[in-house]
């Protein structure tokens, strides 16, 4: 009996022992799986950390900011901002309400609750400048369309109060120009497809829609304070002289940066009208141009006597003029069947200072005749007069440039600004080279750092440039440029009045009046060009149409306004030394 009992007692531990071993195995497997899972999680975590560190290191070295397709892309505008050289915004994206007509807003029946006439009357009370017939026609047509772009939130509330579900107010991004029409020809505008047109909006188009361009600002060389002053004085002069148009430039003589560029009449880039860009054939036949046409860079003119200092400088450089006191015949000059004469009789002979002070065509022609067409043409080419103006704007006029070898008469007429037509920007760059020591640099609308200033090319000797600074100052002190003198700012420059060409020859009563100036002449910093297109003789201009009475006064008024802004303060105790030239000009030695 003990044996079976002994058997049963012995089997119990065996069974328990087997179960424990199974439990141990299960636990071991569970622990192993847990460890494997932890290792996987740890491995993924390490991988992500390594990738993040590598990405941060890459971005730190390259400076690239991830934007495409990320949330940050939604936080920057669709088109980058344009600012002036001091960071003042000139163009930026702006979210505004628009007035949209949605005839499908009503699920049944008429698209409008009230009659089209009643809705039109209500809209006119809110927007009095709307075209009643146009709005009425759009409402009656029943097609989706904009009734007005860019409306104020308070006007949207007023429209909402009309109780018309079909009048909707989508919030849209639009291009906004905070300064209105100021610098419109520099900036251009953006069309309904989001493409830049005409100005720097077109020139910078790719840059402005790039990731970096959208996130940052595109900086222009323009100073909006200088731009405002130039436009204001040109508009004032245009009104006084009843001129058809006006143009002006302010240029840094040492860098080529354009601080202001104005073409009048202008347009509002916030509200561009078709007539701003296109005119009728009848208007074109009368010599008119659209408001959007840039007179500074796209229109070429014969700029008259402003070319005389360039001719004299070329003759000084070539050694043709070695004695400024030499007397040149000032009598009418006969070349073939043509006769070159002066506006007034200045006497039998004139020296070089007198020639520029009185603006003598005959003596300038004689100087050019001795200089020769080859050398004068080479100087003009070095000044870029045979190419489109150097500037980023897309609209650039090609000069009327006499090709081939210049015959004798052509050389003479080019010497005093006829027979060659260039833009006012060409003239500004040429005068910068004339006064800055003789170096020509391309004009630019980009703000330049010290390392970005181009070396340029030498056109005149430094000694020639120094002598021309004296002569230009004398023209303003004693000659045709007196009305350009601004006390304390040491202005120098030259007048130019040229008849406009037309069918059958030059039009005697249609003038381009120009003044090319630089200041301060003891250490030139800036060139200023003012031009009037077809000024009329009015009481305000003493019934005179020439540059001395129309373009020169612009310089006299604008220089004191912009000089202090640009770091040039008036100082009547300083001036360029012209004591060696005064004896050559009768009546000046006593002053």
Commentary on this structure:
One of its GO terms (biological process) is cell wall organization. Residues 248-547 form the Penicillin-binding protein transpeptidase domain. Keywords: Carboxypeptidase, Hydrolase, Membrane, Protease, Transmembrane, Transmembrane helix. InterPro entries: Beta-lactam/transpept, Beta-lactam/transpept-like, PBP_dimer, PBP_dimer_sf, PCN-bd_Tpept. The longest helix is centred in the first third of the chain and has 61 residues, at 2-62. The protein has a domain at 227-584: DD-peptidase/beta-lactamase superfamily (Beta-lactamase), CATH 3.40.710.10. 38% of the residues lie in helices and 17% in strands. Strands 1, 2, 3, 4, 5 and 8 form a six-stranded mixed sheet that branches. It has helices at 2-62, 116-126, 132-141, 153-160, 184-187, 200-203, 205-209, 211-215, 224-241, 274-277, 281-285, 308-318, 352-358, 361-371, 373-382, 408-415, 424-435, 462-478, 547-550, 552-562; strands spanning 81-83, 89-101, 145-151, 167-168, 171-176, 189-190, 196-197, 217-219, 245-252, 258-264, 328-329, 333-335, 338-340, 349-350, 439-440, 457-458, 492-502, 505-519, 526-533. Helix 2 (116-126) crosses helix 3 (132-141), helix 12 crosses helix 15 and helix 14 crosses helix 16. With 591 residues, it is of the alpha+beta class. The protein starts with a helix and ends in a 29-residue tail after the last helix. It has 20 helices and 19 strands.
């Amino acid at each position: 009996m003990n044996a079976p009992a002994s058997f049963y007692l012995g089997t119990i531990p065996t069974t328990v022992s087997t179960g424990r071993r199974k439990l141990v195995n299960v636990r071991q497997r569970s622990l192993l799986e847990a460890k494997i899972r932890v290792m996987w999680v740890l491995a993924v975590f390490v991988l992500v950390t390594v990738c993040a560190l590598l990405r941060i290191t890459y971005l730190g070295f390259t400076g690239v900011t991830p934007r495409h397709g990320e949330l940050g892309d939604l936080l920057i505008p669709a088109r980058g901002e344009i600012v002036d050289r001091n960071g003042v915004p000139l163009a930026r994206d702006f979210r505004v309400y628009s007035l949209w007509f949605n005839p499908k807003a009503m699920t049944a029946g008429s698209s409008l609750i009230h009659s089209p006439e009643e809705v039109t009357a209500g809209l006119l009370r809110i927007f009095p400048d709307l075209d009643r017939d146009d709005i009425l026609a759009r409402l009656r047509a029943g097609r989706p369309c904009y009734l007005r772009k860019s409306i104020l939130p308070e006007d949207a509330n007023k429209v909402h109060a009309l109780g018309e579900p079909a009048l909707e107010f989508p919030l849209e991004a639009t291009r906004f120009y905070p300064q209105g029409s100021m610098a419109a020809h520099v900036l251009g505008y953006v069309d309904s497809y989001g493409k830049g047109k005409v100005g720097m909006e077109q020139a910078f188009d790719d840059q402005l829609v790039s990731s970096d361009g959208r996130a940052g600002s595109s900086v222009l060389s323009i100073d909006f304070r200088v731009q405002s002053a130039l436009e204001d004085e040109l508009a004032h002069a245009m009104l006084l002289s009843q001129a058809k148009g006006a143009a002006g430039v302010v240029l840094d003589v040492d860098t080529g940066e354009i601080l202001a560029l104005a073409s009048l009449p202008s347009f509002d880039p916030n509200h561009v009208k078709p007539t701003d860009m296109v005119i009728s054939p009848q208007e074109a036949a009368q010599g008119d141009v659209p408001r959007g046409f840039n007179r500074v860079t796209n229109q070429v003119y014969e700029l008259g006597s402003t070319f005389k200092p360039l001719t004299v400088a070329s003759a000084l450089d070539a050694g043709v003029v070695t004695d400024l006191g030499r007397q040149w015949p000032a009598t009418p000059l006969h070349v073939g069947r043509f006769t070159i004469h002066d506006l007034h009789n200045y006497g039998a002979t004139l020296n070089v200072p007198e020639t520029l002070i009185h603006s003598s065509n005959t003596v300038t022609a004689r100087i050019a005749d001795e200089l020769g067409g080859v050398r004068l043409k080479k100087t003009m080419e070095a000044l870029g007069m045979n190419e489109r103006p150097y500037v980023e704007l897309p609209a650039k006029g090609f000069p009327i440039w006499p090709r081939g070898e210049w015959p004798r008469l052509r050389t003479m007429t080019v010497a005093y600004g006829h027979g060659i037509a260039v833009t006012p920007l060409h003239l500004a760059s040429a005068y910068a080279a004339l006064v800055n020591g003789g170096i020509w640099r391309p004009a630019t609308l980009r703000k330049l750092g010290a390392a970005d200033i181009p070396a340029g090319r030498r056109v005149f000797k430094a000694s020639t440039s120094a002598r021309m600074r004296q002569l230009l100052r004398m023209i303003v002190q004693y000659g045709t440029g007196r009305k350009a003198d601004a006390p304390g700012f040491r202005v120098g420059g030259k007048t130019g009045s040229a008849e406009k060409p037309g069918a059958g020859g030059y039009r005697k009563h249609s003038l381009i009046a120009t003044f090319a100036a630089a200041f301060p002449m003891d250490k030139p910093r800036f060139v200023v060009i003012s031009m009037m297109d077809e000024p009329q003789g009015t009481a305000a201009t003493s019934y005179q149409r020439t540059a001395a009475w129309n373009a020169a006064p612009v310089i006299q008024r604008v220089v004191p306004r912009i000089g202090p802004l640009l770091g040039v303060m008036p100082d009547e105790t300083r001036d360029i030394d012209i004591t060696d030239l005064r004896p050559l000009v009768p009546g000046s030695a006593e002053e």
